[in-house]
Write a structure and sequence with these properties.
The chain has 293 residues and is mainly α. Helices cover 70% and strands 0% of the residues.
């Protein structure tokens, strides 16, 4: 009897001890959150810059080419061509400009996502993390979409050409990425709470990147071609707006044309998005213990 009382007492004592929660980490100060988000985005972009360039090359391949003679996309052949013609460093051409845009964009993106989550959870019916999966999914999806549009709007003057049509695609992309990541991460940690945070964030981030790219890639391809048409004095190809461009690509290149360059995009987002979330979570934990917390 005494032994059982002792065991029950020990269990009650352990149950009452404060446990580190994810919400405590997410409630770090503004400066650590901005630093974590910005560094994570810049680091990921630098790591995946070669694949990003290959994706863009394949996306615009059909703009001024005869579809009948257009070669089947080959990642290695195109990569070797770039190395032979421009050298290995060409894969990172313009990377400093990209980082100059990505640092503030990623900072605002992650910071605003945390704030939108907090605001949405204050709405009756959406409060309580982990208690209502549907409410959680709604918060993550809407919060991610709002964060993406906020970040695009805040950094718009820094990259006018690249972001001219970004609001049409960045909202859904970030919404899907954040909601899939949060859902997978919550499900994983509920079943295996002792797994490494780095591993969980990397794996869930990679899967969220695949889901987001699969859904939004056609829109990104259209956005890219509309941005680049008319460059270097070439004739304009797409003159009928977003949906007219979609119809033109499908009619001239088939449905497969909407996913031209999707494989290097997958190769980019699997490590890229995983690195972003992994770095962000790791830096949040690190900076939560620093002088800015």
């Amino acid at each position: 009897m005494e032994a059982r009382v002792g065991v029950d007492g020990a269990r009650k004592f352990l149950h009452q001890q404060p446990r580190p929660q994810q919400s405590q980490i997410s409630q770090i100060g503004t400066i650590p959150q901005l630093l974590a988000g910005g560094i994570a985005g810049a680091f990921s972009k630098t790591c995946t810059a070669p694949l990003a360039r290959l994706t863009i090359l394949f996306q615009v391949q059909g703009m001024h080419s005869d579809v009948a003679i257009m070669s089947k996309p080959c990642i290695w052949r195109e990569a070797l061509r770039i190395v032979n013609e421009e050298g290995f460093r060409a894969f990172w051409k313009g990377n400093l400009v990209t980082i100059a845009h990505r640092l503030p964009y990623s900072s605002v993106n992650f910071y605003s996502y945390e704030q939108y989550k907090r605001i949405l959870r204050s709405i009756p019916g959406l409060e309580g993390q982990g208690e209502h999966p549907q409410a959680d999914a709604f918060v993550h999806f809407v919060g991610g979409g709002l964060a993406g549009m906020t970040a695009a709007s805040a950094t718009y003057p820094l990259d006018l050409v690249r972001t001219r049509l970004a609001a049409q695609g960045v909202g859904p992309s970030i919404a899907i990425s954040f909601s899939v990541y949060e859902s997978l991460r919550s499900s994983w940690l509920s079943r295996r709470p002792d797994d490494s945070t780095v591993l969980v964030s990397l794996a869930c981030g990679s899967l969220s990147g695949i889901a987001s790219s699969t859904v939004t890639f056609p829109l990104d391809l259209v956005r890219r071609r509309m941005q680049l048409e008319g460059a270097a004095g070439r004739a304009r190809v797409y003159k009928t707006g977003l949906f007219g461009t979609l119809k033109h690509i499908i009619r001239s290149e088939g449905l497969g044309g909407m996913y031209r360059g999707i494989m290097p995009e997958y190769y980019k987002v699997v490590p890229g998005v995983g690195i972003v979330f992994m770095t962000y979570e790791a830096l949040k934990k690190l900076l939560a213990q620093g002088p800015f917390s």
